Amino acid sequence: MSKAKSENKSGAVIDYQGVLRDIAKSMVRLRRPERLLRMIIKYIHQEMNLSHASILVFQENQKYFSFVDSKGSRKIPPQLVKLDMDHPLAKWFQRGQSKELPSMDYLSRAQISRWMGDSALSRRLKDQLRGLIAAMDILNIDLAIPGYYKRALLGLLLLGEKRDQAPFTDPEIAFFQVLAQDCSMAVKTAEYHQSLLERNRELSGRLEQIEDMRQKEQDTYYQIMRSLAQEVWAKDAYTFGHIGQVERLGIMTARELGLELTEKKRAVLSAGLILHDVGKIGIPDHILNKPSSLDKEEWKIMRTHVEKGVRILEPLTAFKEVREIVRCHHEQYDGSGYPRGIRGDQIPIGSRIVSVVDAFHAIVSTRCYSKGRPVAFAFEELRRCSGTQFDPEVVEAMIRALTREMKKRGNTFFESPHQAEGPSIPEESVAS
């Protein structure tokens, strides 16, 4: 660019570099390229003293160039005119550089006239130039400038003649060339942005579908697990309500402890309370319902229900925390439990809650080897084992919560045909 400035139709000096900087800022700010292209055409029409100015953009899905905007006394109706791929201007700027011509990065009438006067040009090339002149006459343009992106023709800037009939200067042509490239960059950036948005929406939709399917599968599996849990407890005649009451007791205890029960955390704890003994589905009935104490080998088999339960829950990918509750619900506060022998705060709080409320409900419920004992007796048993088998804080929290609930609702909280006074529950039954 030999000059950085020129004069507009009113004689004011045009700062081309300043205009380009403003347009570059607008490219960043404007998300829709059509607004930028219309803004550029409006500026050219108002400031450059041309009969008209138009801009076309290639529509890849339809394989033609359509007008985004056209302004001036001899403007082209944008809705009525389209240039297909075989149009002389489109073909000219899409083909490779000609060895016969020095430049092909823009077309002007003056430039074509100079070429036509070259006797060395081939007849084929001169015919092509005549076709370009005819096309420029139809469109009433004096200057055509292409906009490329990685050698692909994305747009055309078509400019009518100057009102004062003066030729376009080199700085003006260079300015228009930068504008055309900026337009191409804006169009391609918008295309990539739109494509990214569409891909993200498509991906988001697919992920939602996958998540919905996964959730449905897990909900179904969870219901199966809940049914299995009921099957396990139904094997033992001591309760049908055990599963629901243990869950209620556990949630009450967690609230009393001041635990933050978000929807997810409450769901995890509920699942742990419901499914903690699901592994007993794999324990033989003669061991599960034995009316007397289990011998050493039978206890060995009974204890496998923990890992069996973990394996049953393995397909539930969202139930990792639930599996840990199940895995640790027979760990004891002093470290004497199983299967890993962990102690204190090493045991998940959900498992410590399960241990207390499950033992409490076992004491007050009639089982195959004993009748249910009164709530007060169960409280004494829990406190006796507090600090060894059970977490003392969990024990006291459950007792406070249940005492308050029973005062509020009377003794109806544990209405059950199976609950009655009977002999003291065997020691191992509290632990099991």
Task: Please explain how this structure is put together.
Residues 415-432 have low confidence and may be disordered. The protein folds into two domains: 5-197, Beta-Lactamase (2-Layer Sandwich), CATH 3.30.450.40; 236-431, Hypothetical protein af1432 (Orthogonal Bundle). With 432 residues, it is an alpha+beta fold. The longest helix is centred in the middle third of the chain and has 66 residues, at 170-235. It is 54% helix and 10% strand. It has a six-stranded antiparallel sheet. A two-stranded antiparallel ribbon has the order 1-2.
Concise account of the structure shown:
With 432 residues, the chain is α+β, with helices and mostly antiparallel strands. The protein is 54% helix and 10% strand.
| CATH architectural label of the largest domain | Orthogonal Bundle
Q: Could you give the distance between the termini?
A: 90 Å
Calculate the mean pLDDT score and round it.
80
Give, in order, the helices and strands. EEHHEEEHEHHEEHHHHHHHHHHH
Record the strand order, biggest sheet.
5-4-3-8-7-6
Report the CATH superfamily of the largest domain.
Answer: Hypothetical protein af1432
- Helix % is 40-55%
Strand content: 5-15%
Task: From the structure above, extract its key features.
432 residues; alpha+beta; Hypothetical protein af1432; 2 domains; 6-stranded antiparallel β-sheet; two-stranded antiparallel sheet; 16 helices; 8 strands; 10% strand; disordered C terminus
Q: What is the topology?
A:
Layout: E1 5-7, E2 13-15, H1 16-29, H2 33-47, E3 52-59, E4 64-72, E5 82-84, H3 88-94, E6 107-108, H4 109-116, H5 123-139, E7 143-149, E8 152-159, H6 170-235, H7 242-256, H8 263-275, H9 285-288, H10 296-303, H11 305-313, H12 320-328, H13 349-364, H14 375-384, H15 392-409, H16 427-431
Antiparallel strand pairs: 1-2, 3-4, 3-8, 4-5, 6-7, 7-8
Helix pairs in contact: 1-6, 2-6, 4-5, 7-8, 7-13, 7-15, 8-12, 11-12, 12-13, 13-14
